[in-house]
Structures are given as C-alpha cells and as structure tokens.
Amino acid sequence: MKNFMVAPSILSTDFAHLGKTLEIINRSEADWLHVDVMDGMFVPNISFGTPVLEAIEQHSMKPIELHLMIVEPERYLEVFSKYGIDQITVHAEACLHLHSVVQQIKSLGCKAGVALNPHTSLGSLEYVIKDLDTVCLMAVNPGFGGQGFIPETLEKIKELKQFIQRKDAKAFIEVDGGVNRNNVKEILNSGADAVVAGSSIFNSDDPLRAIQELKKPIEINVTKRNKLNNN
User: Fold this and answer.
1) Burial profile 155-178: b = 16 or more Cβ within 10 angstroms, e = fewer
2) What are the UniProt keywords, alphabetically (predicted)?
3) Which residues define the annotated binding site for a divalent metal cation?
C-alpha cells in the first residue's frame, strides 16, 4: 500500500501564529505546503497576497504549492513565481485560455497544476493533461476551510485516474477539501496520489500526529488495533 503525499493548507491555521505553524510543518512528514490565494471574486473569500508569501518563503523549508483561486491568474503569475514557488495551480474555470496559462507557468520555471471545482467535468483537461504535473480535484466548493467532503469526488478520482492513463499522461491526482483521517483511505483507494488538508490538521491537538495519520493511514490503524489487542 502506497503512502499519500500530504500538503497542509495554511488557510486553516491561526495567522497570529503563522511562524509557529511553519515550524510545525517544517518538522513534519508533510511533502509540501499548500497556500491558497483568494481574491473575493472567483471565490467568496479573501486570503492574502505577496507580503505574506514573502514571509512564508523566508521561513518554509518545504516546497510551496500556490493555489490561485483568482480571476485572470495569468496577470499575477510572474509576480508570484518570484517567491520561491515550486508549483502554481490555477482553476480551469478561471482561465479563458487554459493552455496558454499552463505554458506561462512552465516558462517561469514552476510546475503546473490545474484545479477543477466539483461541478467541472474532466473534459476541460482534454488538451492540457499531458502538460500538467498535478490535477487538483476540489472535494468542496472552494473558498472556505472546514467544509464536508463531497462523496461523489471518489468516483471522479477513479474517472480521472483512467483518463490520465488513457492519455498516457504523468499528472498526479491531488484532492483538496474535507480530507480527514476518516475518509483518507477511501481517497487513497480511489486512485489519488496526494491530499490537501487544513482543518483536520490544525484543529487537532497534535498537528504532527495528524499529518502522520494522513500519510500512513493503514500503518496507523494497524498500530492502534495492535495496541487494543494487547490491552
């Protein structure tokens, strides 16, 4: 059984203690840091901009995935790429010329990801899938943390896996929204490679342990069951 790649989303952290959050993530088994930028137009929420990104770059030891939930993301790609960003993920719904935006991301030396909202079909990836490093399936309607996982996402993961294989593409499947230790195995078994998690990590008493449980759900559950059997 493979392990998940896990990307903690700082959207759910206490921003008064952002430095402490980054220290925790740096010490954790997380694979990269997921940073959501929202403009209040594409989604009904506003997060932050370049000053916070600059601070994150200075203190994060993990690769950074920038998830742009903004209209016309191509206007800001060059600016954002200067802050040590490893991957930029844009929404298919926000790009009039998606192929052009993906190529622009690549030209800036970043990996390219495309996110799909729950209602968006996989057909929007038809002509870009081979250029992508990641497809991010939203398992909630984007804009706010703490939402419940949309169950139909599991079938969409399976369909995307088949689509990627049929196209002989190499993109990872990332699932974002409502991920927790109770559904992570189902997400894994459906074919996902990575998950983004915020509330389930930062609302827990032990964020380091929460990340570990997401990365190794099978091992963690076996360990717990053995402890029960021994008592």
Assistant:
1) ebbeebbebbeeeeeebbbbbbbb
2) Carbohydrate metabolism, Isomerase, Metal-binding
3) 34, 36, 67, 176
